[in-house]
Amino acid sequence: MVTQVIMPKLAANVEEATIGQWFKQEGEPVVQGEPLFEAITDKAAVEVKAEGSGLLRRIVAREQSVVPVGNVIALIAEADEALPAVETPRPAAKAAAAVAAVKASFGARRIARDLGVDLARIVPARPDGRITEDDVQRAAATTERPTVLERIPLSPLKRAVSSHLARIAHSVVASSVALDVDFSAVEAALPRLCEQVGRPVLSRDVVLYTAARLLGQHRLLNACFTDEAIVVYQPVHIGLAFDIERDSTVLVPVVHDADRKPLGDLAREAATLAEHVRCHSLVLSEQVNATFTLADQSALGIDSFVPVLNDRQSALLAVSSVRRRPVVRGGSTTEAPVARLAVAFDHRVLNATAAASFLHAVRDALERFTPPAMV
Fold first, then answer.
1. For helices 203-214 and 263-278, what crossing angle results, to 10°?
2. Rounded distance, CA 9 to CA 12, Å?
3. How many Cβ atoms sit within 10 Å of the Cβ of residue 94?
4. pTM, to two decimals
5. Residue 88 domain-assigned (yes or no)
6. Which range marks the domain in which residue 317 is found?
7. How many structural domains are present in the chain?
8. What is the pLDDT of residues 59-102, one digit of tens each?
9. Which of 171, 198, 215 is the last residue of a domain?
10. Are residues 43 and 56 in the same domain?
């Protein structure tokens, strides 16, 4: 039986995705359940598994193609089976279409690409409006710019995430609040937690556990803005933002129902997700439906940062490095492990008072933290 491979709907608000790479070539055998291709959206790169077995008889959508959800992108069948007619998807390369609309010779386009010259800004010398190589050279000569050491091509994942961040930056009314938190109680509890859980437990896991249980009391931070209403989510699905070196970007796997899980389970799940990010082996179910994000950058040795909000979320909690700093206790000064926590939030959904209230609650819980009875 012929299996039509279609572009899956990777998230509720995603209508198209880019083919990052095919893991099989035409003519190679495919086994149901094994990774078949990489689909990239503005949120994540997902390895999509084959839904049938046979030979990969035809690849309809090649790598780097942008394909609408539901379109057929390949056919799996036995060697002697007749294949149905399938329309080749039309790539939705809007930027490329805009460049193509400019009248320019092939050589002019090549030189403009190499020199980083925007063809749309060039006034052509020819009366027919066609841009020549000389036009590009003149434009480059009159533009002061530093010497280019290297041009790093944008991977599909980098391009998708960059587009996603730019769209959020233009649509979200972003603001933030921050304060310092004494991690003495957390660090004192970690050895006992590690012993109880039977594996390493990090400060990040305690912050995750604490934030998850407080979001139910601060509902506007577990919400999002839409044109019709402010939508408050019922579940608490917390995304964990991880830097990835492969594309110098960020992936955000999700701990689902984080408010219902004991600390030990959260620590184990967070460690598993971190390993999947490092190995580039995240599956779709690990990347969808986040309602809030925790961005832990404590390993970077930085004192403060506020990352960009994620799509369809109203808030994000950022954790910087824990450092020993002077603190005042009982009228005297001593040293303690301190980290700066920040809440980035969408001002359309909540104000600074609501964000600060949540942040103070997180601080109070961490500074008074004691290991729960069941971890």
1. 120
2. 7
3. 9
4. 0.66
5. no
6. 173-367
7. 3
8. 999 888 888 989 999 999 999 999 988 877 655 444 444 444 56
9. 171
10. yes
